[in-house]
Amino acid sequence: MSSIKKVILGLFLVLFITGCMDETEDETINGNKLPPQSNEIINGYKLPPEPDETLNNSTLLGIDSNNNGVRDDVERKIYFKYKKPVIQAYMMQSAKSYPKYLENPTASAKAQETQDEMWNKSSCSGYLRRIKKIEMPRVEGVEFMENAYMNTKDRIRAYIEFNEASSGGSYSIPLRRDYKEENCDFNVQEMLELGK
Questions:
Q1: Tell me: the pLDDT tens digits for 82-112?
Q2: What digits encode the pLDDT tens for the residues 14-25?
Q3: What are the counts of helices (DSSP H) followed by strands (DSSP E) for the chain?
Q4: Would you say residue 40 has pLDDT above 90?
Q5: Distance, C-alpha 155 to centroid of its chain
Q6: What are the CA-CA distances from residue 81 to residues 50, 72, 93, 147, 193 (Å)?
Q7: Cα(8)–Cα(167) distance, rounded to whole angstroms?
Q8: Contact 45, 88 (CB under 8 A)
Q9: What is the helix (H) or strand (E) element at residue 34, kind and residue range?
């Protein structure tokens, strides 16, 4: 075999192997390229990767790659904004309601499950604030969550629809005797220990 043929064959093999390596590095599911894995860890919690903004904002619910009920970009904002593990956990509990408000606004506004979630969040917040004496993000926390979740016109419209369907309803709020640790959907003591 001549040296020119060997060089051409060698280049062909290099290109072929490189092309194969590129294909195996880009994992896909149903033809959709998976986002890169995140190596970011805050307070022992592994964050999901930052999602592609265009893809994330193309639907009401966006991307939740770790399937924990919170959109990835919102989850990342929570962990970067709030430094205490117990506040991060509480804000994650709060964030889990918003996809339901957006997905089916009118039905969510009328659902007993929505009222139960609101009750539990308020009871958990009251427990952390009054019993454990933790400074909780109150109005600022609600504003943060609404700004994080309602970042497209479609999401804002759905949230307005949810609020309109909720208006005129009668909602009870927990009293001090109702402030209970079990209404937090996370291990409060573990989060407090982690924050020391």
A1: 999 999 999 999 999 999 999 999 998 889 8
A2: 344 434 433 333
A3: 10, 4
A4: no
A5: 15
A6: 15, 14, 15, 13, 20
A7: 73
A8: yes
A9: none
Crossing angle between the packed helical segments 85-95 and 112-126, to the nearest 10 degrees: 170
What are the structure tokens assigned to 66, written together? 């770790």
Closest of 91, 74, 79 to residue 186, by C-alpha: 91
DSSP 45: E
CA distance 174 to 116: 11
Write the DSSP symbol of residue 13. Answer: H
Please state the pTM of the whole predicted model. 0.78
In this structure, what token pair is assigned to residue 159? 């949230």
DSSP at 176: G
Tell me the two tokens of residue 181: 């640790």
CA torsion angle for 56, 59, 61, 64 (degrees, to 10)?
A: -30
pLDDT tens column, 137-172:
988 999 999 999 999 999 999 999 999 998 887 777
Classify 52 as helix, strand or coil: coil
In angstroms, the CA 92 to CA 74 distance is 9
